[in-house]
Amino acid sequence: MAQFLHRDYKVVKLFSRLRYKPSLPAWYPPLPLYQTLLQRLRMLGLFTDEHEDFRDEMKEKRRLRGKIAPKKGENGKGGVAESHFL
Fold this sequence. Notes:
This protein is mostly helical.
């Protein structure tokens, strides 16, 4: 039994001396970078994200039905959005 452990340990030592060289680049792509790039392209009109368009449309419909609380200043109670002095 001790003989097998000694031989196995030689293999461990051999591989521990080798330098690790990754043959592939990083496994995961830089998703935050891609997300911001696609958002900017969408703002410029160079990219259409159908799912994001659908989400925007549903959000607007919910706002029109009164399901979303209005933003600060949009409810007409002395906010900047509806000033009578302009």
